Prior knowledge:
Chain B: Keywords: Cell membrane, Membrane, Transmembrane, Transmembrane helix, Transport. Chain B: It is found in: Cell membrane. Chain B: This is ABC transporter permease. The complex is a heterodimer. Chain A is about 70% helix and about 0% strand. By secondary structure, chain A is an all-alpha fold. Chain A has a single domain, classed as MetI-like fold (Orthogonal Bundle). Chain B has 2 domains: about 60 residues, no CATH class; about 220 residues, MetI-like (MetI-like fold). In chain B, about 75% of the residues lie in helices and about 5% in strands. A two-stranded antiparallel ribbon of chain B has the order 1-2. Chain B is elongated, with a radius of gyration of 25 Å.
Amino acid sequence: xxxxxxxxxxxxxxxxxxxxxxxxxxxxxxxxxxxxxxxxxxxxxxxxxxxxxxxxxxxxxxxxxxxxxxxxxxxxxxxxxxxxxxxxxxxxxxxxxxxxxxxxxxxxxxxxxxxxxxxxxxxxxxxxxxxxxxxxxxxxxxxxxxxxxxxxxxxxxxxxxxxxxxxxxxxxxxxxxxxxxxxxxxxxxxxxxxxxxxxxxxxxxxxxxxxxxxxxxxxxxxxxxxxxxxxxxxxxxxxxxxxxxxxxxxxxxxxxxxxxxxxxxxxxxxxxxxxxxxxxxxxxxxxxxxxxxxxxxxxxxxxxxxxxxxxxxxxxxxxxxxxxxxxxxxxxxxxxxxxxxxx
Amino acid sequence: xxxxxxxxxxxxxxxxxxxxxxxxxxxxxxxxxxxxxxxxxxxxxxxxxxxxxxxxxxxxxxxxxxxxxxxxxxxxxxxxxxxxxxxxxxxxxxxxxxxxxxxxxxxxxxxxxxxxxxxxxxxxxxxxxxxxxxxxxxxxxxxxxxxxxxxxxxxxxxxxxxxxxxxxxxxxxxxxxxxxxxxxxxxxxxxxxxxxxxxxxxxxxxxxxxxxxxxxxxxxxxxxxxxxxxxxxxxxxxxxxxxxxxxxxxxxxxxxxxxxxxxxxxxxxxxxxxxxxxxxxxxxxxxxxxxxxxxxxxxxxxxxxxxxxxxxxxxxxxxxxxxxxxxx
Lengths: 343, 328
């Protein structure tokens, strides 16, 4: 097999490094699984490229106002573009933009109401990233806590948590979320009493809440399984025997052993949540105007794609590149933590 | 064995009951007011709203409504509407506020479209996934392997709906490479051609997971002793891969498939919206836009039943194959 020699080399190098411990002062200690994974990840070209792509989008999101202000002053409106202002004077009677790409509108303007598409594109990176990372962080915390409790306490607690996991897993996620969103929204005010901005804000946090509510079970199940086997190991029993409090055992003794699977699961969750947000926005149950969102823009632009493809393509490329980079990065992280992977 | 199956059945039952109760509470005890949505005028007077609520039976106490709904599931019931009575036979999921037809009728009339869509997707997914997976495993470590696996990774990582949308826009609407979806009511021959495009895109995207899964499973079984034995006996490589290794590699793939079909059935929502196929997904999305609560509740329940049943079948089948499962 052609890969065998390279594998042996890699193995030998890893063993040699583990023995000499290049990053560690104490030569007797080996590297932790986290260190090995980090080392592998740094050598993974795909992971590095993907990290740069993700960083690019994070920078775009952070500096969205600055990027928008780089565009020239529009001679017609006499002002610089921003993501929210409607300029019907920039479109003709059929709704088509009077001009294509100009120095004032790098990606042209929206059909119909003439908002600047470049500004909406850079601002559109914000909700995607915030929802993806916040929902992943929250669902990871809940999943880990539930898994630890179920696995360590066992008995009735385990049975209840396992049942709740089964329950949530059997619900059709997309359908429930789409159905529940308008209903929950009504809790905050009757139809027509909320301003567009309020609705948009409610939707934003509602999406995060629903994604977390339906996203913690996988990790909880995984952590539970690991904890059930770790619970009986000697070091945990020893800790228990000398009277270490339960909370300390859970977070200081057991949790460090689960860092790998938790990081892997969180890194795979981020692109999944970003996709879910864009899908919901596309189906009409996600973000609403005036928040700039790639999913919304795609939904609006799809009907004019023949006459005005420039409206559709930037958000399509944006969401695809971001999710692709995050997914491949997640795969790389999983491979880096997996001791059986040999590449 | 029997206790395991019974326990698993009990779990499935309680999960379904909880789904029913929580979905009912969410939709009927929640702040959504179907009367408001059904009001034909721009703003209805409170008296008109009360009249609509009464005609739908929404003014009665919640436990009464729930008991009625629950018993209707098993024995059917008569639904009074505007002086008339509509009979709804078991399993009765209520009556659509808009079409005034029983929900179960609406759902079952759309069911064949979704099933046909899913069936075609499963066929493409399994054939393409397994073929490419096996091919990649036999050329392991070469450039072809990297192209196949890398390609499936990239293809599978792009958000599905974006890919399906672009595919639909450019192959069915912009250029008529594939026919657009027809209506199921105009006969099967009218309907099936419209499924080619969604079959292809959903099948190929879903196949990416199977490609990687089959490849890993094949690599495991190719490294087994019996494969070495087969090779040493001088059997052709084709037979070694196709018969000895593949058979062992397929059983975990089949398990995943059972779980995936349930997810696919409920996950055709986006596909049906994009390709405008008259299935369950489109039915529920349309109902959402019009606050037709009984339809939404019905589709949620039916999909939950499908998911739970499939999980149950896979679990029980698996416990026959692998006795360790029963003990956990």
